[in-house]
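Exercise 7.
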Amino acid sequence: MIPTIITYICMTLNLIPMNMKLTGILLLCGCMTISSLTAQNIPVLNWGDQGNGTYVNPILCADYSDPDVIRVGNKYYMVASDFHFIGMQILESDDMVNWHILTQVYHRFDLPGWDTNERYAGGSWAPAIRYHDGKFWIYFCTPHEGLFMTQAEHPEGPWSPLHMVKAVWHWEDPCPFWDDNGQAYLGRSQHGAGPIIVHKMSADGRTLLDEGVTVYTGPVAEGTKFLKRNGYYYLSIPEGGVGTGWQTVLRAKYIYGPYEKRVVLEQGTTSVNGPHQGAIVDTPQGEWWFYHFQHNGALGRVVHLQPMHWQDDWPVIGMDVDRNGVGEPVAVWPMPCLTDVEDATGPMSMSPLVKKCLKNRHLPQTSDDFEQTTLSPQWQWNHNPDNSAWSLTEHRGQLTLHALPAENFLKARNTLTLKVMGYQSVATIAMDVSRLSDGARCGLACMGKTNELLGIAKEKGQLKIYRSDGSSDSILSSLHAKTIFLRISFDMPTKQYHFAYSTNNRHYTPIAQPFFVDFGHWKGIRFGIYHYLLSSSSSSPSSSSSPSPSSSPSPSPSSHPSSTSTITLPWVKYEITH
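Solution. The predicted structure, written as tokens, is:
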């Protein structure tokens, strides 16, 4: 298991400032450096896998909020809150640090407001994923509709249609648990965070059997996760709020309590605010780890990984730097696939497992050339898509988006989005606009608390490049080209983003004024591709006001004048540089 010298080195590494680059780590008494081993041709960033046997937190520098993680065999699976973006992604990892997006669980909500973009900040909140009886199970609540469940025999699917376990408002953060005798339970909290309530549930996970028992009331207590070990029932819960909270663990000999309480992770002396809400996970070799999020401004809630062990049947997470009995987040740590390597009497051999670990660096998918006939799982629609108005086969090797009528950007159907990742990055899209109709608006958006757009508008047969902040619009220039290239650069530390455009993908014209979009609707920022036909009732291309709840019918091509406005995109390139 973890050799003494690795433990000592890790304790030292935790004290190294984040701005210092690690060039290697000594492993065992052989003092072997492994920094010379390289992975796939991606840059070493100042987060995630460092390519030298260590990782730097966060391991996922993107908005994977409220993460839950399980291990099945030698693979790890993660889900996170996706709110009003469709649909929930499942990530897979071999080493707990490097992740790729495997699939999506659902593709729409067949409920009022989802075809009319009226559920901003709604949708899936704090899901739980579990493996039981040869199946994967996912539970989540939506604040306006209820408690949902889906299951699959394989993580890549197919996933069963969403089953509404209970139609109810303002439940949140559910987690199922099947006891040793087969009795099923579900823990959850309430909108506004707390209390923690435990229900009996049918063995098939489709029905709650009672009104639930309150087992704990605490300060902003939510995010319930069940675990049973050594005869104890554990409830791992975040408390204290998104940006300032801590992780609490409750334990009891009986599922309804009484529960003992211990705070196991806090910010302490570190800069990691609110280290909480996540998952306790073991490895095949018996090591333990804890995933949690950190609210990191406009990026949203990024994912950290902490070492963990058990002491007196309590989890001990991170490092207790200030010796107050509560763990604090580590900044740098050896990769789990290395700490799991068995101790040896001499220098550690470069086994295939170790070599694979050190060469496994990758990030979740981003760029796309649209060569597949199904949409890659990194893309998420804003609310329900209208599948009649987009295609990957109409023009092979290109994404085709047909315009649907909308009053403004927030109401526009079929806006396709991608999470912003890293501290500095650049997104570029290529877009054929030769088949736009009058009244069409299309382009590149930055979405968050507010929305900023750089796009093309067609009026009276003329194409114009325009810029919008969601409330006012300005024409930048006329466009006399068939294809336009639009770019957005993100610099998260300085809170400055920049738009630019080009007609040849070589020389870009920058938009003079930088801008900033913050975290909003419970989500970190994204960039998105949009195309809509400005409805005759509106005189401006976009609006920053959120729609009010309603169950009015969805606009559709059949209920409006037919639109032939079409754009095609041969590629999207997203580069993460820092």
